[in-house]
Amino acid sequence: MHLVFWQPIPSFHQEGFLSALAQADWVDSVTLKYEFELPQSRRQSGWRDGVFEGVKLEQIQKDEIPADTTAHIHIFTGFQTHPGVWAAFHRIPKKAQCRRFTFAEAPECVGWVGFLRFMKYKMASWKIAPRLDGMLAMSQLGVDFYRSVLPQSVPVHEFAYYDVSLPDLEAFNPSYADSHQPAPLRPQASDLISPRPPYRFLCVGQLIHRKGVDRLLRALAALPDRGWTLDLVGDGNQRAKLEEMAERLGIASQLKWHGSLPSAELASFYQSADCLVLPSRWDGWGMTVNEALRFGCDVLVTETCGAASAVSQSARLPKHTGLWTQFLETKIHGGALDHAARAANQQLAKSLSGEAGAARLKAILTGSNEY
User: Fold this and answer.
1) Where do the domains of the chain lie, and which CATH numbers do they carry?
2) Of 263, 213, 261, which is closest to residue 238 (Cα–Cα)?
3) How far is CA 159 from CA 1, 118, 260, 284, 332, in A?
4) In 3D, which of 39, 24, 113, 30 has the Cα closest to residue 74?
5) In angstroms, rounded to a whole number, what is the distance separating the alpha carbons of residues 139 and 137?
6) What is the rounded distance in angstroms from the CA atom of residue 7 to the CA atom of residue 335?
7) Which helix or strand (DSSP H or E) is residue 31 part of?
8) CA nearest to 354, candidates 103, 163, 75
9) Full-model pTM
10) What is the pLDDT of residues 286-299, one digit of tens each?
11) What is the CB neighbour count within 10 angstroms for residue 166?
């Protein structure tokens, strides 16, 4: 099989998955076609260039016609959304020899704006569904949404963001993290003279309304136990309001604002944190969950994040934010993560590895039940 992925940019979040596919014995070649180079705005928010081993990277050319053979499978990002990507999709003959899939998150559909967005996707479905062989929907949220807009003739498969490869994942085991840190980032439990260290929460993402950091601050402020800290990595137009809110709630001294950081600098935060919290009102996925699990960090994520599909029910925050404080308090009372807990989280991370994604895609394309 020749796999061709059509995307707006070459995202480093896809490098593990595409590299694993390139090494799979059932794949003849993997090509990543992209519209634009990584924009400066992404670099400023911490993104880096991807390292795609064994993958051909080619910028989409004007009027390019995708290869149309029985050996080719084209996977288009989005849903009639990115102009260059979907112009290429429509250049494939309606009755094609190749197979065509789309790969997308569910959009947020709340209120009147959400209704209009739903209708936009419904109309897009009428246009592209007759040409589709299947849909790779990010998470159960994606499955539910695209099943509601696509006809039954188009199979909708649950998929995920699969990132690092297994060899890379092994480097994140707890013993490696301990032996490669220049100095401990928190007091050690073996130091019986020191008081119990504060429980360390972590939030990574843009400081915008959709990310729901205000909801997390209110839940933390209601905790009777003040034995916690929160590191916030990211920036956005809500930062000043959130800082004022923290002062008003009386928790400003327990928060540390780090701004946007390069992705390479996040490792120390995941290694020292006890629990990552993703309080988003909506997230098509939430890659920070993948990253946290790789380093053995616990996670709490809202049900309106796609990544909730990758974790157990106990790691999903209730829809009613008034119950969040109870979840946070349970984490604090559980104490700092030990090696066994971190190892269990890293085992879960393997289900989101590039190799796991390659196996999942093979099962979908071949119609097997091996995954």
Assistant:
1) 2-164+353-366 (3.40.50.2000), 166-351 (3.40.50.2000)
2) 213
3) 20, 21, 29, 12, 33
4) 30
5) 6
6) 42
7) strand 29-34
8) 163
9) 0.86
10) 999 999 999 999 99
11) 14
